[in-house]
Specification:
two-stranded antiparallel ribbon; five-stranded parallel beta sheet; 15% strand; Rossmann fold; 214 residues; elongated
Length: 214
Amino acid sequence: MPEPAEPTPPNSSYPVSLDVRGRQCLVVGGGPVAARKAAALLECGAEVTVVAPDISPAMAGLEPITVVRRPYRRRDLDGAALALTATGHPEVDGAVYADARAAGIWVNSADDLEHCTFTLPAVHRDGPVSVAVSTGGASPALASWLRTRVAAELDGVGQMALLLSEARARVKAAGRSTEDIDWAALLDGPLPDLVRQGQIDEAIALIDGAITPD
């Protein structure tokens, strides 16, 4: 009889949302995969440096980035807050991983879980709302599949977040605690449908009614 499969270890990843605005981030590799990673960092306001002998059109079209056209060197990590490597060459990606670990820099290696100190979730963004789906690196394809299906249910959440943020500000300006508002009841009511249907004035009226003291 075949040996029983070992139980899957518990997920030990600690989910966080990093603020990389103005932080130096290194991307090693110039191909389409590296370009996607660089684009995601740029979208979040990072200062991105790309090191690669050759740059794909996808990478060349990104800005603003700093491009260093040569092979990776250890000193490329100097000053970096994060490192992402996607060269397709295990020896290069492994070197980036080893150097980053030694320097205390968090590093992600594309399609190489063994050489990652963090993994990248599949992300859907709508205004101030971000929804991340992770499989802990077990299956990026599954994470993307789930992200797409979750996103289909989230139409209008960005607009709704802005309306609720404005409402919270009004409550605080009145010297009251936002903890006294039954936000869950508001969200479980017609508010999401009103926002999805573009009935913003009606949504604002509903929120005003919920935050106005009896």
